[in-house]
């Protein structure tokens, strides 16, 4: 088990484009219960199964296992709750940390968020000029929530 | 992915005791949704994560992965829905098939079921004289159901 410490921000500029390395992600969920999220992901050609517990501050217990690509495809196509999330993840190094910019497609088109994984909760972060409001604690932006309440529907209920 | 074909019976006699090989199981669930059950199990010293889809007749899609024992312990102790199931599984060979006798403890004390895994749905089975009623299609006996509705509570609601 790893303890994952992440902060999440909305992306407000285009300064990140053309930087880093971009990979296509498809992911779905077997459980969106926030005490025990179970995620299936294909990142490029790699399949993984991840289990995440409830957030405690910015920290979160996480277990992740590589699984055969064909299993990940079957799980996404037949067992995960629809719809399957599609996004491009761009990983951009900044000093000793990495920014991950997620640009969503499909029902979440228009949403772009950036996450930075930190060695401990109080680690200082230099914010790039293309990030805006912090949304670390806003459950709406959790990927497991974007399945049931996609970004395209948010304005309708506000 | 494997397709699992199993038939399940109540155990009515003691003729199985002293046969085969017995292993202690601890298992819990990250999802009990019958379309996407996610099970964590420790069998002896081996940890596994399994994902099962909905039954179609006696057949059921199943994905199973070995995980580190320490991960399985953490998942059972911190992330699975309580309570954790405890049972002894005794595997008894019979010709080309294997009977698995599960004797439950804790809140499911008194329940003993036997499962036989078959190469195809219509494969003939010789029933040992210690099995009784078939419960293959009775959801109450699903292990994922025994977490929320343990055997000790059944009489109270009938």
UniProtKB/TrEMBL annotation, chains A, B:
Q: Which Gene3D superfamilies match?
A: Hypothetical Protein Pfu-838710-001 (2.40.320.10)
What region holds the CYTH domain?
A: 2-148
User: Which Pfam families does this UniProt record tie to the protein?
Assistant: CYTH
Q: Which InterPro entries match?
A: CYTH-like_dom_sf, CYTH_domain, NeuTTM/CthTTM-like
Q: Where are the transmembrane segments?
A: none
Task: Tell me what this protein is called.
Answer: Putative adenylate cyclase
């Amino acid at each position: 088990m790893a303890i994952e410490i992440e902060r999440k921000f909305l992306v407000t500029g285009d300064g990140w484009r053309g930087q880093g390395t971009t990979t296509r992600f498809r992911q779905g969920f077997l459980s969106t219960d926030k005490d025990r999220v179970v995620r299936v992901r294909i990142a490029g050609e790699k399949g993984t199964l991840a289990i995440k517990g409830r957030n405690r501050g910015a920290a979160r217990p996480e277990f992740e296992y590589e699984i055969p690509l064909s299993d990940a495809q079957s799980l996404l196509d037949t067992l995960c709750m629809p719809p399957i999330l599609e996004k491009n993840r761009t990983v951009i190094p900044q000093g000793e940390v990495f920014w991950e910019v997620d640009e969503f497609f499909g029902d979440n088109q228009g949403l772009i968020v950036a996450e930075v994984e930190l060695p401990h909760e109080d680690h200082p972060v230099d914010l790039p000029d293309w990030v805006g409001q912090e949304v670390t604690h806003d459950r709406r932006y959790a990927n497991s929530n974007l399945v049931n309440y996609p970004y395209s529907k948010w304005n309708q209920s506000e």
